[in-house]
Amino acid sequence: MKHAMAKHGGTAHGFLNSAAPGLTTAFQPNQYYKTHEDYLADLAEARIG
User: Fold this and answer.
1) pTM exceeds 0.90 for this model
2) Cα of 14 vs its chain's centroid, Å
3) CB 47, CB 18: distance < 8 Å
């Protein structure tokens, strides 16, 4: 995205949206974690760093 915006001389603004972790779990079911809460916690941590 940075590369694409740089092609416009640094004057372009960008935004990347992302589904909330709770919504992600509705469409990507837990296949590896022991609990839903563990899955949700790792998704949230991955999103905020």
Assistant:
1) no
2) 16
3) yes
